[in-house]
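Hi everyone,

Forwarding the result from last night's run.
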Amino acid sequence: MGGMRQKQRNQRKQGRQGKRYERRTRWGAAGLVAVVAAVAFWPYTLLVLGACLLGAGGWWLWRRDRRARAADREFREADRRARARATVAALDVLSWREFEEHVAWLCRRDGCGQVEVTGRAGDLGADVTALLPDGRRVVVQCKQYRADRSVGSADMQRFLGTVYQHHRADLAVFVTTARAFTKPALELATQQRVLAIHRDHLGLWNSGTPLLDLIPVNGAGQGRRERRADG
């Protein structure tokens, strides 16, 4: 009985070895055929290998470029938001005169001509005047308020009292470092076509957004409802 079992085990072992030998033989034959074909048709083999290498290299470069572009877009967007916040904070430490000079520089940067800083006692609400590239006259009122303040309707009414009739403005701009305009001030600005630039929009302007691109968002961007003032 023991001899029979040993004989069966030997037969199974021989069967497994035979199968492994057959597999090796098939793979060896396939490899030999491939080598012979490669040698016999070596120009075509080189072309195929070259195409494969070029394809793999192109795919790797494409993937690398795609990742780099995505990372660059994310960085630029994060940097834009950070600069918009940081640049307004930098404006808070300027003197009132330096703030007006900086607003004048922003107008020049956006292509305005004949830019003048007129802010002084008795300026009747015109701190900066300029001409847009299309010839329209811009009159800017600058108010450097604390970041936690809001611009009220009284300030807006004083500006409106002179900006069109006395200064002959085609575009009236009220720019402030305050966080917002009160609801009545904002409604008045919208009704009288005043471009009201509060702190958030000033950050956009200061970080590269052209002045005229802020016109479509006039009256927007006042933040969450609970942050808005009603007085």
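The chain has six helices and seven strands.

Cheers,
N.
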